[in-house]
Here is the input.
Amino acid sequence: MYRQLQSLVPAPGQSADWPALLEAYPALRALAATPQDAVYHAEGNVEIHTRMVLDALCGGADYAAASAEERFVLFHAAVLHDVAKPDTTVIDPESGKIGQPGHSRRGSIDARIALWRAGVPFESREAICRIIAVHQVPFHALGANRAGHSAEFILRRLSWEVDLHLLTAVAEADMRGRVCAVQANCLADIELFRELAREEGCYRQPRAFADDHTRLAYFRGANVHPDYALHREPGAEVIVMCGLPASGKNTWVAEHCAGLPVVSFDDAREELGLAHGKNEGAVAHHAIDRARELLRAHRPFVFNATHLSGQMRKKTLDLIHNYAGRARVVYLEAPPEVLFERNLRRDTSLTNQAIERMLFRWEVPTPVEAEAVEYGPLVNQGRIPRGPLAQA
Here is the structure.
């Protein structure tokens, strides 16, 4: 399937094969029946918009200058950038106003599932998903501050999650591939976004920081300058495991963390005599109490859980940070056929059907979440990604 997706990437100046894309991504079939707000999309439905975006992208200078791998990322990010609009469309019954709240984040998850099943290599897949998740940010990053953050903060943080050069190329195509009154202003904002990224030295690479502790403190909202190191208080060193069930976390811990205490929701369930999904509040309370004991004692340990969504990881990482601990996130995954077969062989009450439902909360950690984030060893690649997807 991955080779098929590669074959769909047009040469610069060529048009996309839309019927072939519909075969590759059945979810795209719903775009033609999905309306959009005429203020921002006077061109019509989501399919019309997406095809216009692809024409703008493939005819653009960034696409022409890109490497083959970058074109793959750019093209499939553009194909899937609005894939979640059908499922997120809300129409106000009184005004008739159309909105698709949360379609970027949901779209990144939908794309991750589809590309994982298709066998797309991790680095390319995550580059695509991260662009989808933030594809609208360059439209308004220089306008009204988002959550009180400056444009510099947004740029610096984004540069650790995504290649800003590729992000702005997709954002520009997204804006050119529509009919709206604010198009010219938004295109100007995207260009200013590019210029600020160049000034910050993070247009094609992560923004440099004095060290990892300063970088994390900055991203967590501390009033520090990226170029001056922040003093670090003593605290526990914690390995935070992350990945779908049956992705190999227990095996990795056994091989790499011998002798370290392990905090685990699965162990807590066993100690409490509970099946998976039963009284999860008691399970979490039991595990977190043990983690607090170790953090207070400044003892290194492993927190072994799926930590599948950003929200779930944040709870654990906030706990560690509150005790001046240092988190090293280790993310593991396996191809779908390996993962589901492996789960069938495990002694667990968790079914494959339950894992399928968990996929819709699946958010891969990014380097902004902890002082160190590692990806691998990845079963489907056997290598650890580099660049903005590298070990932080």
Observations:
- The CA atoms of residues 197 and 203 lie 5 Å apart.
- DSSP finds 19 helices and seven strands in the chain.
- The radius of gyration is 22 Å.
- The first helix runs from residue 2 to 7.
